[in-house]
Design goal:
The structure holds 2 protein chains of 2 kinds. Chain A is 80% helix and 0% strand. By secondary structure, chain A is an all-alpha fold. In chain B, strand 9 and strand 10 (219-224) form a beta hairpin. The longest helix of chain B has 31 residues, at 239-269. The termini of chain B are far apart. The chains are: A mainly alpha, B alpha/beta. Chain A binds chain B through residues 154, 156-157, 159-167, 170, 174-175, 178-179, 181, 255-257, 259-262, 264, and chain B through 51, 54, 56, 80, 83-84, 86, 88-94, 103-104, 106-108, 135-138, 144, 151, 155, 168.
């Protein structure tokens, strides 16, 4: 009796988020239809779904999303490699940290979108520009988190390794870098987030390539195809969530120990 | 190996140019094959002392030297003579049990096959067979403690330094680990310096109990424990144990009071 009740409560709890989403969509649909709001302002979810379906079947989503994802991963890869490398070097060499620190301190707070005019002058509006702007933006959180992770290594672990006969180099390779991995991953998550933002923004501003989700958004907006705008936003939201899930999965694969809490 | 500690003093720089004397001219000869327990209130510098002995801290003044009792003329500074078992274990969370235990050998450049074979033997000996592939975070407190013990034992160093290793364990696990350590001590005959603030533990394990004063840490009194070996938990009920406990309790009580008074003064001075 009680068992059945708790099980029902469990199902209800798990179904709740989906029910709320369905409820909101239904309210949205009814509100738009009953008040007769023009689709140019707010199209009903059912129409958005129809447009989304059409955009999927005519291949425009696949093409533009594919292009955007390629740019995101290219920019992210550049930022990850350079950011982690510099962060590790800064953590290990005081001189490098001293030299790099004022540059990072000065450039990190600068809104990277403000660099777009300059980058367009230097690089034009092609692929390089979009990859560079997203890589620059993602670089900072990655380098800062990596550096912090290296510097915040548990000194107890370092002492223990030294006691067990590790030399300086072994301590850096076998203790300091692995110990910084959770922090490096946190930086990569932040970096991925801003890469997505910057690639889409760069596709919207001054892009000559006429492709990508940002382009699709701005183009649909300009011709007042609000349904397509919503459909594109929906796709971006879903893809963003998937990217986060993918990163979490990679984290668990590469660094399974971060899953277990250490309570020594 | 005997460890000769001579007039070791440790002074920490404090705020506004003041300084704190953590250890004040501590001298003692930790003899080979003897289990020495350092007992004292928290902050008395006992952890600092074993870190100095282990070469992990540098003393402000004083010396630590090593001598082989069979060749008493050769006195030398410590090299790789000791290994530490830490209060918070300091296991490497990203390494499996096997690779934690094999860490010391890996640093020496021992081949993977060889160090794994060796580590497996030690893992079996501390009763963790079958857990080689587990990560420390997947183990219970007592099991992690065994990993830490195996990781130290694999070094085969004559001196073992233990900094309140069982402090964080629950009462039952602690008893099991104490028996485990006694077994290791009886089999390997190492020089053990064991830091604790538990009186019962110090008497049950040690051949001698060095009672330390509150800060600055000095030797207050050395109690010799003449309980027979192998030790067992039942000895807690013996008359010898009772007498030693009362004596140690009396000494420690004084020091804890002093220590608390110091802390109160320090807080008031702030």
């Amino acid at each position: 009796m009680t068992d059945g009740k708790t099980r029902l409560a469990g199902i209800a709890e798990r179904a709740m988020p989906a029910l709320v989403i369905a409820g909101v969509l239904l309210a949205w649909e009814l509100f738009v239809r009953l008040r007769g709001i023009a689709p140019i302002y707010l199209p009903p979810p059912s129409t958005i779904a129809v447009y989304l379906f059409r955009m999927i079947t005519d291949g425009s989503i696949a093409f533009n999303l594919g292009v955007t994802l390629l740019r995101i991963f290219a920019g992210f890869a550049v930022a990850a490699v350079t950011g982690v490398t510099l962060g590790v070097l800064m953590g290990m060499s005081r001189i490098i940290a001293r030299i790099a620190d004022p540059w990072i301190a000065a450039l990190y707070p600068l809104p990277k979108i403000a660099l777009i005019p300059l980058l367009v002058i230097w690089l034009g509006t092609g692929e390089v520009y979009k990859i560079v702007i997203s890589a620059i933006t993602a670089f900072f959180p990655i380098v800062i988190s990596t550096y912090a992770g290296i510097r915040q290594t548990d000194q107890g672990l370092v002492k223990a390794a030294r006691d067990l006969g590790a030399n300086r180099r072994q301590i850096q390779m076998k203790i300091v870098i692995p110990a910084a991995i959770p922090s490096i991953f946190a930086g990569l998550h932040l970096g991925m987030g801003v890469t997505v933002i910057l690639v889409v923004a760069a596709e919207m501003i001054g892009s000559s390539s006429q492709s990508g989700m940002g382009f699709l958004l701005i183009q649909s907006g300009q011709v007042m195809e609000t349904e397509k705008v919503f459909a594109s936003l929906f796709v971006l939201a879903v893809v963003g969530a998937l990217i986060i899930k993918l990163q979490e999965w990679v984290d668990r694969k590469v660094a399974p120990w971060t899953v277990y809490r250490q309570e020594n | 190996m005997d460890v000769i500690v001579e007039a070791v003093t440790q002074v920490w720089p404090g705020r506004r140019g003041s300084s704190v004397v953590a250890l004040d001219r501590f001298s003692h000869r930790f003899a080979s094959r003897r289990f020495s327990c350092l007992l004292g209130p928290s902050g008395c510098g006992k952890s600092t002392l074993i870190q100095i002995v282990g070469g992990l801290e540098t003393a402000s003044s004083g010396t630590v030297q090593i001598v082989d009792p069979s060749r008493p003329s050769i006195v030398r500074p410590p090299g790789a003579d000791s290994v530490m078992v830490w209060q918070n274990l300091n296991l490497f969370p990203w390494r499996s049990v096997l690779d934690n235990v094999a860490f010391g050998l890996e640093m020496q450049g021992v081949s993977k096959a060889e160090r794994h074979t060796h580590a497996k033997v030690l893992i079996m000996s501390v009763g963790l067979g079958g857990f080689e592939g587990h990560l420390p975070g997947q183990l219970s407190g007592g099991m992690r403690q065994r990993v830490a013990l195996a990781r130290a034992l694999i070094m085969e160093r004559p001196v073992m330094l233990m900094d309140e290793p069982f402090g964080a364990l629950d009462a039952q696990t602690k008893i099991v680990m104490q028996e485990e350590l006694l077994r290791v001590f009886d089999q390997t005959q190492k020089t053990i310096i064991f830091v604790t603030h538990a009186i019962e533990e110090a008497i049950l394990l040690g051949d001698e109990v060095i009672v330390m004063t509150a800060r600055p840490g000095r030797i207050k009194e050395i109690l010799t424990v003449d309980l027979p070996r192998p030790r067992s938990l039942e000895m807690v009920n013996s008359k010898t144990f009772g007498t030693l406990f009362d004596r140690a309790f009396h000494l420690i009580r004084e020091e804890v009071m002093t220590s608390m008074a110091q802390q109160t003064t320090a807080l008031e001075a702030r």
